[in-house]
Amino acid sequence: MAKFNRNSYFRWSIYLIVFSFWIFWLIGLRVSAYDRFIVDDCLADIRNERPAALVLGAAVYSGNVPSPVFADRLDTAVELYQAGLVRKIIVSGDHGGPNYDEVNTAKDYLIGKDIPANDIFLDHAGFNTYNSMYRARNVFKADSLLIVTQDFHLARSLFIAKKLGVDAWGCRADRNFYMNIKNMKNREKLANIKAWLDVNLRVKPRFLGSSFDLEGDGRETWDKL
């Protein structure tokens, strides 16, 4: 009887593992299907002006230097703005402490690219993609966006945005080769599962705060000196 129980336990453990992998595969498939909302060439194919481009944060280096991944996202947003495809740029990133600041690094970079200060909105609490999308919809009241990030990140971003009620389209920011691209793609597999759970559990970000009018002055979202 003990042998039967051990065999039964082993068999059901295998079933559970296989079932879990199947569920994870289905979730990944469901999220990745939102790559259909990625525009092949935003500068050529987008016809109507959108309220804003949402630039998703990425690493910054000491001395407030954006990483190559982040710089490419910002440069892509600059092109969209200069082409008249968006009226504002929202940068959503991690500014959780005094020693690490994605959004002000991005703001300085954009100003250096001649983007008017009043058209730059900063989301200081975009600690992850879900937070960035949720806050874009509920803090900045954006119902239509061009999302700017690299290709590997766009399907998940669009999945979250669409599920939160944002008319979003994705603009690729793949302008260079990235040394750690393989690791970033691998992380997306687990991130897709988290995104699906966040959306279906209707998770609310820890920080929301006051809302802002995208037709207003973006400097209202800057750090108060």
Report on this model:
With 225 residues, the protein is α/β, with parallel strands linked by helices. It has one domain (2-221): 3-Layer(aba) Sandwich (Rossmann fold). It contains 7 helices and 8 strands; from the N terminus they run αβαβββαβαβαβαβα. The strands form 2 sheets. The chain has a 6-stranded parallel beta sheet with strand order 1-8-7-2-5-6, sandwiched between helices. α6 links the parallel β7 and β8. α1 crosses α7 (181-201). The model has no long low-confidence stretch (mean pLDDT 91).
What order do the helices and strands come in, and which of them pair?
Elements: H1 2-32, E1 38-39, H2 42-45, E2 50-56, E3 60-61, E4 65-66, H3 68-82, E5 86-92, H4 102-112, E6 120-123, H5 129-138, E7 144-149, H6 151-163, E8 167-172, H7 181-201
Parallel strand pairs: 1-8, 2-5, 2-7, 5-6, 7-8
Antiparallel strand pairs: 3-4
